[in-house]
Every structure is written in structure tokens, then in C-alpha cells.
Specification:
Elements lengths: L19 E2 L5 H14 L11 H5 L9 H13 L5 H27 L4 H13 L1 H7 L2 H21 L6 H16 L8 H16 L9 H17 L8 H20 L6 E2 L7 E2 L3 H24 L3 H31 L17 H18 L25 H23 L6 H17 L26 H5 L6 E2 L3 E3 L5 E6 L3 E2 L10 E4 L4 E22 L3 E6 L7 H6 L2 E5 L4 E19 L5 E4 L3 E3 L1 E3 L1 E2 L1
Antiparallel strand pairs: 1-16, 2-3, 4-12, 5-6, 6-15, 7-14, 8-13, 9-12, 9-13, 9-14, 10-11, 10-12
Helix pairs in contact: 4-5, 4-7, 5-14, 5-15, 7-8, 7-9, 7-14, 8-10, 9-14, 11-12, 11-13, 13-14
Protein name: Membrane protein
Organism: Corynebacterium resistens (strain DSM 45100 / JCM 12819 / GTC 2026 / SICGH 158)
Keywords: Membrane, Transmembrane, Transmembrane helix
Length: 618
Amino acid sequence: MGSPPPATDGSGTSGKTSAFTPPATSDAPNQFSAEQLSTAIGKSAPNADSSLLERLFSPYDGHLMPGSGAVQLAVAHVAPLSWWLPAVSILLTTMVTTALWYVVVRRAIHLGASPRVALVIFAGLCTSPFLSAAAGWWSASLNALAWQLAAAAIALVGLRPAIRPRTMMVSFVAIQLGALLFTEKALSLIAVTALVVWARVQRERRPQLFALLIGPFMLTVGWAALYLSVVDFHTAEGGFAVTSAIPKALVTVIIPGMLGGPWVWDRWHPGSPFGNLPLGVGLIVTTLVLATLTLAGWRSVRSRAKITRRVFWTCSCVAGSSLAYLAVVLVFMIRARTSSGTTDLLPRTAHYYADWWTFTLIAVLVAAIVLSGLSGRSQDFSVRRPTPHPSPFAVGLGPTIAATLLAISASVSTVTWTVAWRDDPTGQYLSNLQRTVVSPHAKGLVPPLLNQPARIDVLNPLLHPYNSVNALTGIPVATHTTQPKVVNANGELVDAGVLKVASNKQGSDPQCGTRITAGQPKLVMLDQPLAFGDWTWEFNAAATSDTNVRITMPNGLQSSSEVAKRAVTVPVGTKPETRWVRLNGVGGTIAVTVVGSPGTSVCLGQGAIGPLLPAHRG
């Protein structure tokens, strides 16, 4: 044969490899670090050959949410990389949730709850900054709104007059099961069910109604067992950082959030905004809230009126249940959402508290129904009667002002939360990805794309393997290509080249380089060893006849069968040509095996190996 095969340029034509030089911009280090991190600290994913059902029921980042995954797959199929369909779904679901809460509040007033209390509760349910933070982005909104819809539905069923106990229990189970398909947080809906059942027991004086909790309890235990069996709970090595940050989160996010706060946000790409209220302001707000609650409690205790003491103890039970729920949220956060790289900002992420705040408001509303029996305004659950109130929210000036201020405060937090996203690069990145990759690929205009991570401030490497461009676009991952292309930091498909970290040593055959014969595998030596990661090799080769070559990177830490699983098969023709081959491994050797008829040989030239990066003509 002739001399070792020359390199080819990004178009597949003969040229010099050195014509491609990675640009001296921030793209190179950012993409390289993302490329290495995605492999070094990535998480396991379902096998590519898994069925759709297996994929949907596989845990994702500590979550078990098959329904949410199915909805996202459907939306991605209908409108890939488009914002409008998720936005419309969030808007419609929010409207349905608001309508359900309105019906719940009306029913509570019908059963005797104070319209003054109900109005403030309704304002809190509809303008919760915790829920706004969750509903403002697609995947979190599916989980949060599913919980909200289920909680509202359970309240509607539980507060419905003249319903048979069996029908009620079946409804509770069906509603919770539907929510569990979208989020494991729906396990806590058993607490909402217990609240409304307790209200019926208190009002109807029928303790046997507690049997309604048997079905939901069995479902909760069963699903919890399923969840724990598929989700790997690691030791919370970063738990101390999160635990030590909880007091600050209470002062700057959680308690101000009860009043519509925290009003001030900050954001680190690509994560969600976190509350950033100045500590001094948070302490003032917390002091005022605690002082108000303490004064109200002291006055109740000092009162000799039996009714007032009953109110105090009922409110104490509500506060206790709310604190217990919040404690469970924080413990789950430490156990399931914490790792060695977790920062103390996690407890200041508002969307984790959306269901806790809704539960607290439901508890207050249920308490108002129970306590209404003391004033003679109550209606029996078991019969239907016209509401005694001409208007459900004829409440007077004071509660109206309070509800309005709460809504305004929460609206300020929502607006500032959206402002925190103002410099987010994701929108432009996805738009360019749609224009230069997805649409051309549908027309057959995009060459095979090697696996590469998305921009590091669009998708974090911790989300590996879901942080890849191929996962975003749905384009199959190629193991080799003759036209190296990558997506740059702007989301545009551009020519690419290898940033040389190492290269295979030049062979001793003057007319061939390194000759590899079928049936005689060869270890190709590198001029320096590579760290563990994903690498791209400029595979310069030609064969005596068309054949295939199997390539892998062996190491002493894996068995031969494990190494074989990582092997890449590359076709080689009789003309010298460069193929860019994606390899995964570590060490200073590459195993090359010619798969062909006896006598077939391949000549291998020298080629660079390193990360594949955007390139320009030098």
C-alpha cells in the first residue's frame, strides 16, 4: 500500500488535520469540562434496549414519575424543543387548579367556614410564591400541579355532602394513584385525606369514618415500597451543608413565603432561582410573624371562654401538623436530594415547599369548618342545603385588604422570580438547535453526530446521560463519522476538530504505518496515557478490501467482556480516509481488531485523540 492515509477535513475531502484548530475562546474549556464530567460523575440511565414501560418506571434524579415522563415524551414528539406547548399546558392546568380551589372554598363556606378566612385562604392557594416557582418551569410544574390538582380533588370529595363512604374511599385511592404517577410527593396526599376525613368525623360525630383511610393508607405504603425499591438512596455526604442552611432558609424563604415573599431572588445557571432576601429583612419579617402568633396564642390561653380555648387547641393542632409536614419535607430533601456536591442553596429553592404550604392552608380551612359548629353556623355533611351566604366572599373590608395585600406581595415575588431568568441562554440555544440540527436532520441534511454534552450552563453534567445534544434533539448517537460536527455554545451546528491531548504512535511500516491483519488483534500505543472519559480519535486508515474494524480502550480495572461492551465497530474502505471515532476509556493503549476474511489487512496512520470541539480554519 501507499503512505499512511491522510486526514480529511470537516466535509470528508482530503486535507490536513492541522487545518482545524480549536478556537481560543471559552467554548473549548467549557465543552471539554462538560465532556469529562458527564462521564466521570454521571448517573445510571435505563438501558437503550429497555421497553417504554421500563423507561418510564425507571428513577430519574431521585424521582419516580412515569406519568410525567409520558407527558413530556408526548409533548416532545408533538413540538420538539418548542416552548409554546409546555407553556400552554402549564397555563391550562393552573387555570383548572384555580377553578377547583374556588369550588373547594365555596363548599367550605357552605359547610360553615368563615368567608373571611376562606377569602384569605383562596388568595394564598392561588398566588402562592412556592407554587409559582414550581409551576414556572416545565418538569417541576408537572409534579407540583399534579399534587395540587389531586389535593383539590380530595378536598372536593371529602367535603361533598351525601356521599357514600365506599364511593369516597375509592375516589380517594383513585385520585392519589393518578397523582403518584406524576410525582412520588403524592405519597403525602394521605395527610390531606386524613384532614378531610377528620373534619367529617368531627362534624358528623362518626368515628367509624376513619376507616376511609384504610384504602389510601394501603396505597401509600405500597407505592412507598415500590419507590424505595427502585430509587437508590445514597449516604447524604453533603447533608451537613444543607442542614446548616435550614435556619437561614426558614428566615429568608419559608416564613416570608407565608406572606408572599421572598421578593428577592438570585440564580446560578442552569439551576432554578433561589430566595436571596437580605438576612436582616428576613429576621424582621420572622419576628413580626412569630410575635403575632405568640400574642394570639397568649390571648387564647388567658381567655376563660371554652370556645376560645377550643379554637386555640385546634389551631395548635393545625400548626403542629404543618410543622410536622415541613419537617418531613426537609428530611426528605437531606436524604434524597443531597450529595457531596450539594450546596447550602438547596433549602432556599422555593418550589420544594409548594405542597407544604398548600397542605397548611387546607388544614386552616378544615379547622375553620370544624370550629364553625361552635358558633351555630355549620351545615351537616350528610344533607344538601342552600348556602346561608348571599355571596361566598361577602367578607368586609379587612379580609379583602388582607387578601389583596397577600396577592400583591406574591405577585411581586413571581415577577422578580421571572426577572432572575432574564440572562438565561437556554431559549436562544434551543432555538438555534432547532434551526441548525433538528429541522435539517428531518430532511436528511445532517451527518451522523457523535455524542456530545449540551452547553454546561443549559444542562448540568450531573444530569448525564440526559444532558447530551442527542438526548435533547432525539437524533441517534453515532459512534463514528466522516464529517465531524458539533453544536457550539450558541446551539449552532458547526465544523469540528480534535483538540489533541494524545495521539497513536507512528507505525514502523514505511508504506503503511501500523499494519493490522485480520485474526491478529493489535494494541496501538499512545504517546501519553489518557484520563478516564469520552474521547474522539482521528482514525486514519485504509484496507486491502472493504472490512470492519473493532476498536476499544482496554484497562486493568475491567474484565474482557466489559471492555468488549464498549467496543466500537468502524467500516474501513480501500481508499485512505479519516473517520472520527468516539471512544470511552482510560489508559495508554487502543485495541484494534480487523473483522474480515483471512489476509485482509488495515494500514493505520497517526491521528490525534482528544475532545471534539468547534473549529476554524487556521
